Amino acid sequence: MLSKDQIKNRVHNDVDFLVGIRRHLHANPELSEHEHKTAAYISQLLDSWNIPHQTRIGGYGITGLIEGKNPSKKVIALRADMDALPITEENDVPYKSTNKGVMHACGHDVHMTCLLGAVKILNELKNDFEGTVKFIFQPAEELVPGGALRMINEGVLENPTPEAICAQHVFPDLEVGQLGFRSGLYMASSDEVNLYIKGKGGHAAIPDTYDNTILAAAQILVDLNKVITENKSKEIPTVLAFGKLIGDGACNLIPSEVTINGTFRTFDEAWRKKAHELIIQTAQKTAATHGTTCEVVIDKGYPFLINDDKVTRIAKNAAFEFLGKDKVKELGIRTTVEDFARYTQLIPGCFYRLGTANHVKGIRSNLHTSNFNVDEKSIEIGTGFMIWNALAQLKTQN
User: What's the predicted TM-score (pTM) here?
Assistant: First the structure.
């Protein structure tokens, strides 16, 4: 039976190599649906380790199997996302992004590195455990409808179907050396709300000759906030927020069209559906009172993310063993989103957090910022725990 010390030693021996992988990936980020060089790099590493795999799944996705003894006994999956963000990096580090305006500001470089390390070591130890680990490198997590859906539609959860799936995500709210877990509902569903207010534009000085699309847009925002606030349940966290408004007029020119873009997030499908109806009805009714029209387009995004109680309990207990109870934290519910939810809507899963901050070293920036970075000690911890958790999931029978 493999011990945690064996796993820790294996990872420690590879840590410089893994940090090198992370730095290469960080320096060469690619946006969603453009991860061709990233995928080629991952595939090249897998080939060098003689690990069979499939490429071009749902875009640039990669998947394969590490089969231990008695491979059909139980199958579990590990997933990492691959894409970067359209952000210009401001970190002054040797591995700073070389792709202008593109940056791994959400830690997907760390996610890929940890999964690569886990796959490499699990492959080396495949005669020492039973069952099968399916690995999934997924593109386009940051872009709706998300790479998970495309990979699922192309059969990534079939032949064989995993009994459980796990993924980790960097988390600057936790110090390096810590892991965070939450059972049940964890992250919100997300929808993009697009409003197109139209009317007759004109000279601001002659109000009888135009429809005030700007005033209509302002009132629509106020009314939408009011109707959602009045109808939402206190028990169901809900966010309706608008971050972009374009009214391309001038100080004395009322535009004929105003566009507003926002997001709606919640944790309940019945309320989600009702809220969509309220948004459409309210926006159109308010627009009409100003002599304008409002086309409402709601692009339905990711579902809410549910962490399976049993899979999460196994992972949490594995974390207790691997790091100690004082290093394992309980997470609160979040209205951020993740397309890993696509998997957990279909099979039991656990999405947990890997601490990456080091306040002493000044590593504390939030995700999706131009100076986000991680304490690279997290790579050793994340890789080791990913292996230890996989072994724990394989050992537990349903």
Answer: 0.93
